[in-house]
Design brief:
Elements lengths: L2 H8 L5 E6 L2 H9 L8 E4 L7 E4 L1 H4 L9 H7 L4 E3 L3 H15 L6 E5 L2 E5 L4 H4 L2 H16 L3 E6 L2 H11 L4 E3 L5 H5 L12 H9 L5 H4 L4 H8 L1 H10 L15 E12 L2 H21 L2 E12 L4 E12 L2 H11 L2 H6 L2 E13 L10 H21 L20
Helix pairs in contact: 5-7, 12-13, 14-15
Length: 404
């Protein structure tokens, strides 16, 4: 691989910023509830079954991390404050933050609700260099949302991500071209994208624990041992990452799943939860102006066995009734009647923009009436939140979902 390409990557011809909100969900809760500031806070599901979605920095000092079971977090820190997820609130704040990003460039690649890459190469004449832009973004996010965001600045995405991780919490770090080797060489090889447990063990077997160790191997040696992954390791070990910032990749699927605090043992309750999931997924589809043809369900039993089933419709849909009808038909009846259910999920794929193609199950007049109803419901939920309007079935736990 030509040295010139590596030199070009290190020359910083592109100006990339990686931005990441600090302990996002937990920070929003501490902002909205001042009494929680400075206290350990986790956001997540129930103590019995849930996992930690976010942990404040005060909670992290006890070893609490995202994706940890809530029960384990409570063992590590019994005084931790546990709060439910308020996703609509977090989405609202996320839109505010991304609107701030858009003031400086239209080359924004979202990685999640609270994280993105920005290519500000073409923004220098208007706003100054990348570090100046990152400082302005951090200041405006703080002033307009009351929240902290960390930033990393570098000549490519890989280095910018490493820089923002080094800057946390509430900091800004830049890796200039002449600093790449100093920054990289002492890092553990696990810092490189794509080095998971298996690859890490193989590298360890070769005596490779740091990036400096990896640099001892040339391209041919790494390709011989790791195939195409070897070239990837060779590039990253030298701070080279040619990937561009790609604004908003097309959505491939929209879905939602819930893990329940108590196993579901009743067919009526399982179907009721499917209806709840169908409502959530349909609302998300309409929010994104999408509809889909392939509907999938996921069922996980109390023994952690997991079944998935799918069906592809003739036409696309974004209506909860359609999703629920298909999901209910896909339920593995013998299994759900004889085994407690721990998790349910619905997802929709084979997506297209709203209005393309035909509705799956209804004629034109029925379609118009349903769309008017969906629009009214979406408006009420936008104003009052997801619980502002609900089906009567979902208000009465013991009500048969087919009765209304």
């Amino acid at each position: 691989m030509p040295n010139a390409k590596y030199q070009e990557a290190k020359s910083g011809r592109r100006a990339i910023i990686h931005l990441d909100m600090d302990a996002f969900y937990a920070s929003v809760e501490q902002r909205d509830k001042p009494a929680l500031r400075g206290r350990p806070v986790i956001v997540g599901g129930s103590a019995r079954r849930g996992v930690v979605s976010a942990a404040s920095y005060e909670a992290r000092r006890f070893g609490i991390r995202s994706a940890m079971p809530v029960s384990r977090a409570l063992q590590l820190c019994p005084e931790v404050v546990q709060l439910p997820v308020r996703m609509e609130t977090y989405r609202t704040v996320s839109r505010q933050v991304f609107a701030i990003f858009a003031r400086f460039t239209d080359l924004i690649e979202p990685l999640s609700i609270d994280e993105a890459f920005l290519d500000v190469t073409g923004s220098a004449r208007l706003f100054g260099n990348a570090q100046t832009i990152a400082e302005r973004i951090r200041r405006e996010v703080r002033e307009e949302t009351g929240l902290a965001i960390s930033a990393g600045v570098a000549g490519n995405k890989f280095l910018a991500k490493l820089a923002s991780e080094a800057a946390k919490p509430d900091g800004l770090a830049e890796i200039a071209p002449q600093q790449v080797d100093t920054f990289l060489l002492s890092l553990p090889v696990s810092s490189l994208w794509g080095v998971g447990k298996v690859t890490g063990e193989r590298l360890k077997g070769l005596g490779v624990q740091t990036v400096r160790d990896l640099r001892r191997f040339d391209l041919a040696q790494l390709e011989k041992r790791f195939g195409s992954c070897g070239a990837h390791l060779y590039r990253l070990a030298r701070g080279f990452d040619e990937r561009p910032v790609v604004p908003e990749s097309p959505v491939k699927s929209v879905g939602h799943e819930d893990t329940y605090a108590t196993d579901l043992c009743s067919e009526i309750e399982i179907e009721r939860q499917l209806l709840h999931l169908a409502e959530k997924v349909a609302t998300r589809l309409r929010r994104k102006k999408l509809q889909g043809r392939c509907i999938s369900i996921k069922v996980r039993f109390s023994d952690f066995r997991t079944l998935t089933r799918s069906r592809t419709l003739e036409g696309a849909t974004d209506h909860a009734g359609d999703l629920y009808q298909v999901a209910r038909e896909l339920l593995p009846r013998p299994e759900v009647l004889s085994h407690p259910v721990r998790l349910l999920g619905i997802s929709v794929s084979t997506l297209e923009n709203k209005g393309h193609g035909q509705q799956a199950l209804f004629t034109a007049p029925e379609k118009d009436k349903r769309e008017q109803l969906d629009k009214a419901v979406d408006g009420l939920r936008a104003r009052f939140g997801e619980t502002g309007v609900r089906r009567a079935t979902l208000l009465e736990k013991d009500q048969d979902p087919h009765a209304r």
